[in-house]
TrEMBL record:
Coiled-coil regions listed in the entry: none
High-level lineage: Bacteria, Pseudomonadati, Pseudomonadota, Gammaproteobacteria, Alteromonadales
Family that this chain belongs to: Belongs to the enoyl-CoA hydratase/isomerase family.
Domain of life: Bacteria
A Pfam match: ECH_1
SUPFAM superfamilies, sorted: ClpP/crotonase
Gene Ontology terms for molecular function: catalytic activity
Name of the molecule in the record: Enoyl-CoA hydratase
GO terms of biological process kind: fatty acid beta-oxidation
Length: 262
């Protein structure tokens, strides 16, 4: 049996999901979607896993969707979810609202659906050699998973349109300048530095991180006052949690807190 197109590994409480179609530049196909559909709920429900890393093998993080499979799925009977329906509804939407921190580790070429995958992450770490762009325009394809809708919320509006209209790519360092990438690292240190970052995040209170992420994700769609009210509502809930008391107690006792996510 050939190796799966999406690999799962639990590394000390960090779930690593690795796109594994290096000869196809890790283009997203049906098998990858099926495995995402399997792993996403499993990871969400596993209290031992505190964070998720998505990366790729070979020269690409992900060059987008497998266009042959996208085209073939257009022939499905009416009412049946096609390739893009499943990718958006069962993969990207759950990843954007995932209850645990998600880190994208860009090991190489990141384009189209690969860019949209990275946009689902809370934090982006990139190898120096990584190049990042949209590329839909190069194939007469319209972005349907966040490329046009969400990219201008992350980087400057005119830079987003430059990437959308030209199909060009920018370097990891350029995308760090524009705020898309958080950390740029040497290629051979990408996994090690990403794991260290994930472990640092995993040491925090899971319930506090989940609530922070919920408020932060929704903040841009709300007025200032509504966002502040949302934050206050969750604060009051959080003050009744075990982790809140444990954090303050550990601080007063000058010891490391032991968070349990409740």
């Amino acid at each position: 049996m050939s190796e799966a197109n999406l690999l799962f590994e639990n590394r000390d409480g960090i779930a690593w999901l690795t796109l594994n179609r290096p000869k196809g530049m890790n283009a997203i196909n049906g098998e990858i979607i099926e495995l995402y559909e399997k792993y996403i709920p499993e990871i969400a429900n596993n209290d031992e896993i505190r964070a998720v890393v998505i990366t790729g093998t070979g020269a690409a993080f992900c060059a987008g969707a497998d266009l042959k499979e996208v085209l073939a799925s257009q022939k499905l009977p009416p009412g049946e979810k096609d390739f893009l329906d499943r990718l958006c509804e069962n993969v990207f939407n759950p990843l954007r609202d995932f209850p645990k921190p998600v880190i994208a580790a860009l090991n190489g070429i990141t384009m189209a659906g690969g860019l949209e995958t990275a946009m689902c992450a809370d934090i982006v770490v990139a190898a120096e050699s990584a190049v990042i762009g949209d590329a839909h325009a190069n194939f007469g394809v319209y972005p349907g998973a966040g490329g046009a809708a969400l990219l201008p919320r992350i980087i400057p509006h005119n830079v987003a349109k430059y990437l959308l209209f030209t199909g060009e790519t920018l370097s990891a360092q350029e995308m760090k300048t524009y705020g898309f990438v958080n950390v740029v690292t040497n290629d051979d240190e990408l996994q090690d530095k990403t794991q260290k970052l994930a472990l640092k995040i995993a040491s925090k209170s899971p319930i506090a991180l989940r609530r922070m992420k919920e408020v932060a994700n929704q903040a841009l769609d709300k007025s200032r006052d509504a966002a502040l009210e949302h934050e206050q509502v969750l604060l009051r809930k959080h003050m009744r949690s075990y982790d809140f008391t444990e954090g303050l107690t550990a601080f007063s006792e000058k010891r490391k807190p032991q968070f349990i996510g409740k």
